[in-house]
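ok, trying the design again with the full structure, not the truncated one.
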């Protein structure tokens, strides 16, 4: 039994199950591996879910429904209509509300005996250990590398298990990191990918049901840890391909040279310097044009070339009139035929959804001698906000 399960079991010894609880969790009580003592352990468990989005939605719903006694939620965002395709904690009426406010309302209705602790903060080096310290188990439902590395390091220093999950397009993965009893996240992924190599879900999309499958795996691992049953997912990375409906397992070991949990760690505290190591290096300033400036130039009839570097599927949702479509991957492959049609004596305005891909496109064009290429600051979302509110946001 792992230390976390022993700690929870000791705390559960002074608890009882009320008749209403026994009735509610009767299907758990029928399982010899759970029973009354196991359900008391779930009641005693303190689990924190980082992120109340795609993964955090099914994880928190199932943990609350299972009878976890204390559930922490960490998120600082508000509900957007684009969340509703996969974030099943929320409904149309929640759009614009703080996620934690809406999440607590939904979860409290599902499990009124659960205590919900809300942490409406962006995790950083100054607060991560304070927020995670009171909990037995950490479930990482974040969507960016910087926070994953931050959470990993804090869990190593606090000695807490980190139930990991991630999703992108049609693929997902899950694992359990628990140093010193097994590998940590940095043992598997020593450093983040280069800037721009891995697009976000906002750029690449995600199948709406995918968080349910990966979130369910994370919730299962958290419950197994609390109950002290089964084989933990330590040293194993489970990957899932929704298109082929297939699971694969990759086994990995503890890295003796891991910078945070190895024999001679170079990272010994959660500090801004440690966090910054997980962030991409700052890129040189990219020549940009503001939406207001672009709109003014277009109204005045100035000769400009507009290029949309998003995917065709994105352009079908909304587009800036007169913009030619050249998806960034095609530009990166050369797209010589298109490049030959671009003028070298007028401004070329590149845009994507929010500005990241168009910045990369601008750098590529600049390398090819297009000195008049600029990136639209804020992308088409900024254009919609200021100039075309009738267009569909996504």
């Amino acid at each position: 039994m792992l230390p976390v399960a022993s700690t929870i079991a000791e705390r559960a010894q002074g608890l009882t199950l009320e008749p209403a609880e026994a009735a509610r969790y009767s299907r758990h009580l029928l399982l010899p591996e759970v029973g009354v003592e196991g359900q008391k352990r779930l009641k005693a468990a303190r689990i924190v879910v980082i992120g109340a989005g795609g993964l955090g939605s099914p994880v928190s719903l199932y943990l609350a429904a299972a009878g976890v006694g204390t559930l922490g939620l960490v998120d600082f965002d508000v509900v957007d209509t684009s969340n509703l395709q996969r974030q099943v904690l929320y409904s149309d009426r929640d759009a614009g509300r703080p996620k934690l406010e809406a999440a607590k309302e939904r979860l409290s209705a599902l499990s009124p005996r659960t205590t919900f602790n809300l942490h409406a903060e962006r995790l950083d080096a100054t607060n991560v250990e304070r927020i995670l310290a009171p909990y037995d188990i950490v479930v990482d439902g974040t969507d960016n590398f910087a926070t994953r590395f931050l959470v990993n390091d804090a869990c190593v220093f606090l000695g807490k298990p980190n139930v990991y999950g991630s999703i992108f397009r049609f693929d997902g993965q899950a694992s359990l990191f628990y140093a010193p009893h097994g590998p940590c996240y940095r043992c598997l992924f020593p450093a983040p990918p280069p800037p721009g190599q891995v697009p976000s879900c906002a750029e690449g999309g995600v199948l709406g049901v995918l968080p349910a499958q990966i979130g369910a795996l994370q919730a299962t691992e958290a419950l197994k840890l609390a109950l002290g049953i089964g084989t933990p997912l330590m040293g194993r990375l489970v990957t899932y391909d929704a298109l082929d409906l297939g699971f694969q397992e990759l086994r990995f070991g503890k890295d003796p040279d891991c910078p945070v949990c190895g024999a001679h760690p170079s990272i010994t505290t959660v500090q801004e310097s440690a966090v910054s190591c997980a962030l991409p290096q700052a890129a040189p300033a990219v020549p940009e044009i503001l939406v207001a400036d672009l709109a003014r130039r277009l109204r005045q009839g100035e000769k400009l070339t507009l290029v949309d570097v998003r995917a065709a599927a994105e352009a079908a949702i909304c587009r800036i009139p007169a913009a030619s479509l050249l998806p960034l991957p095609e530009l990166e492959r050369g797209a010589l035929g298109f490049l030959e049609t671009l003028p070298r004596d007028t401004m070329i305005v590149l845009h994507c959804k929010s500005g990241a891909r168009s910045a990369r496109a601008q750098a590529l064009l600049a390398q090819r001698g297009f000195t008049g290429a600029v990136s639209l600051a804020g992308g088409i979302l900024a254009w919609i906000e200021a100039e075309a509110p009738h267009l569909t946001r996504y």
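Keeping the full-length input from now on. The first helix runs from residue 3 to 12.
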